Amino acid sequence: MPDHLLGFTNKTANPINLIVGQLNSGGCGTDPFIQGWWTVQPGDLVFTLKSSSPHDRFFYAEDGAGNAWSGNGPWVDLFPKSFAGCASNGAPGAMKLVRMRPVDPEPIAILVALG
Asked: DSSP state, 23?
């Protein structure tokens, strides 16, 4: 089975910070496995998640200008530093709770344009 890639391109004038997640991954049961942060500079492209399945993937992104890309996916805690693990709500050290945006599945690669 081919690897499926999830990439992000920044179409704004500000750096964007993002996290990604996937259900049924990392031994998290019904909670998503999440990881972050990636910083995507204006005009840059970053691939963040490689998996064997294109389904049940999510992301959350924000910039320093008050813009955020969220949706109707799972609620997850955000942490100020890089992290990877099962999503939780109300975890010690979390800076805020956000709702992730689902990503529509594509055959091999998904490219999300932020901006």
From this structure: S
> Looking at the domain that runs over 4-114, which CATH code has it been given?
2.60.40
Which residue in 16, 20, 5, 29 sits closest to 76, CA to CA?
20
Element (H, E) at 69: strand 68-69
Show me where the domains of the chain are located. 4-114
Whole-structure pTM value? 0.83
Exposure b/e, 71-89, CB count within 10 A at least 16 = b? eebbebbbbeeebeebbee
Q: What is the mean pLDDT of each run of 10 residues along the chain (115 residues)?
A: 74 91 78 88 84 76 91 88 80 85 66 65
Measuring CA to CA, how many Å separate 109 from each of 4, 102, 104?
6, 15, 11
Question: Would you state the structure tokens that stand for residue 29, as one six-digit string?
Answer: 């049961």
